[in-house]
Specification:
The protein is mainly alpha-helical. The protein is built from eleven helices and two strands, in the order αααααααααααββ. Among the domains are: about 70 residues, no CATH class; about 60 residues. Strands 1-2 form a two-stranded antiparallel sheet. The radius of gyration is 19 Å and the shape is globular. The two termini are about 30 Å apart.
Length: about 280
């Protein structure tokens, strides 16, 4: 069995969530662009072919791929998705790698679980909400209340680092809450689109590999002490051992003895590269 820390001891380890939460870091982009699975796939395909963002944006507009009524709306949608995908810290697959990953996914839910990590890493409000739900409700996501009223109360009470509350109209926050619930449904957590409760989603194989890669990159060689990707994908701690057993049998992963403790790590750095072992 791999040793792990408890969720109770985790919160202070994620910088930028509990500290230095400023109004400048917060946006409501989620209400403009939720999961956007199909649009994200389109952008990944174009970028993989065109090799740069300028050509990708040009084709996006020329072919009217955003499906919005105006050029400005299409541009805004493109910008939000592009900003999610620009993986500056290299802790998630690159856009070209993600295009290949999507081709290997068996269903939309698996794709949604992968995109969700990109949203978590680029949207501090989504990340903060997840932390608050763990902190204020229960360490087991299966016991959460995700009603619109409960989520709205949580977001309204967000306190910035200067002690002030965020300043958005309640109508805008309600739209954001609806979009957040949409994410929870698409990753497989909510039991129904209109339900208020859920259960830890079953993680698709390709999503699990991305989650492990993300956790390993973000937390370092001892990522199994706290697999942050499991945490964000709302996996009860009782599920972690089962997930580790799945990961260690993937072709690109291996089990190693690290200072007397079994650990799991990728066999090479760019496990999603089309070139393979690089």
């Amino acid at each position: 069995m791999i040793n792990n820390k408890s969720i109770e001891n985790f919160m202070p380890q994620e910088p930028g969530v509990n500290d230095n939460l400023t109004a400048e870091k917060i946006n409501l982009n989620l209400k403009e662009a939720g999961m956007m699975i199909n649009k994200t796939e389109i952008i990944c395909e174009i970028f993989s072919d065109q090799k740069n963002w300028s050509a990708t944006k040009q084709l996006w507009h020329e072919e009217k791929l955003g499906g919005c009524g105006t050029r400005d709306s299409n541009q805004r949608l493109f910008q939000i998705i592009r900003d999610r995908l620009q993986n500056k810290e290299s802790i998630l697959p690159t856009v070209k790698e993600l295009n290949k990953v999507f081709r290997d996914c068996f269903n939309k839910r698996t794709k949604a679980q992968i995109i969700f990590l990109f949203i978590v890493e680029t949207d501090i409000l989504v990340k903060y909400m997840i932390h608050k739900l763990y902190e204020k409700q229960d360490k087991n996501p299966g016991n959460w209340n995700l009603s619109k009223k409960e989520l709205l109360n949580t977001i309204i009470r967000i306190e910035l680092s200067n002690g002030k509350r965020i300043k958005y109209a309640e109508s805008s926050l309600k739209k954001w809450v609806s979009s957040f619930r949409g994410l929870m449904w698409e990753i497989g957590f909510l039991n129904s689109p209109n339900g208020n409760t859920g259960s830890p989603p079953v993680i698709g194989d390709k999503a699990l590999e991305v989650i492990a890669y993300y956790s390993w990159n973000k937390m370092g060689p001892e990522w199994t002490d706290f697999p942050i990707g499991f945490y964000y994908l709302l996996q009860a701690q009782s599920n972690w051992e089962v997930l580790w057993k799945r990961i260690k049998y993937y072709d690109a992963w291996q089990e190693k003895n690290l200072q007397g403790k079994l650990n799991i790590e990728p066999k090479y750095n760019k496990i999603f590269s089309e070139e393979g072992n690089v």
